[in-house]
Amino acid sequence: MDNIQVLGYIGALIVGLVLGLIGGGGSILTVPLLVYLLGYNPVIATAYSLFVVGTTSLVGTYKKHKKGLVDFKTGLAFSFPSFAAVYLTRRYLVPNIPETLFSFENYTLTKDMGIMIFFALIMVIASISMIKDNKEKVVYTIPQAYYKTFIQGLIIGMITGIIGAGGGFLYVPALVIWANIPMKKAVGTSLIIVTINSLIGFIGDVQTIDIEWSFLIIFTLISIAGIIFGVFLSKFISGKKLKKSFGFFVLLMASYIIYKELN
């Protein structure tokens, strides 16, 4: 095992840790790790990310549920439109994106670059919603109309299908802002959505690319160890600090990806 692989497996541990702490962000680490450190192209990296994040989130969902921090009704309401959008996007849209998206004089925007830049821009939007100080909202007892949840889930599902993310970094703010769920419960609830979205999205990828199963399973098992530890640590961190830290982390990673792709 060379030094690059060792660093990759250390990264896998951190991926799980992040998922356990904030209910998202696993793909924010997994995709850049696979692309920039281990040399996978973005399409394969985003596919592997779906499997790693989905499997790891399944364990995290169980751990959070034992602590009473999963709202299954809201989570499943988001999941149904989302997993359909993720599957269709990974199965049909991503494989048919042209290899060259844009070309002008000596500059060419490739499919791989486009996926990574789009990934980073979505991360920036999500980070801003988590960093800014929102005034205390009135929490309504009337649940949000299901058609709104359906549309929100459909849109986020399509976005996460393109970028190969579980969507936790989008679902956490969505659950906090739209569904009025407290931060820590939003973190737990997001994990069930991430699990369903990621694993069903990965099924779409299995039909179109060759999977290096030995590497993927080892990477995933290490991530699972990380999420178990992350869930344990999360009980010692306040929801407010968790939200802001999450936002700054996402913004930092987005800036790095944009820098790497444009240089």
UniProtKB/TrEMBL annotation:
Entry's Pfam families? Answer: TauE
Annotated signal sequence range: none
Any transmembrane segments, and where? 7-37, 43-62, 74-93, 113-132, 153-181, 187-206, 213-233
Chief subcellular location equals: membrane
Q: Where in the cell is it found?
A: Cell membrane; Membrane
- Tell me which domain of life the UniProt entry assigns to the organism this sequence originates from: Bacteria
Q: Name one GO cellular component term.
A: plasma membrane
Membrane topology value: Multi-pass membrane protein
Q: Which family does it belong to?
A: Belongs to the 4-toluene sulfonate uptake permease (TSUP) (TC 2.A.102) family.
Protein name from the UniProt record: Probable membrane transporter protein
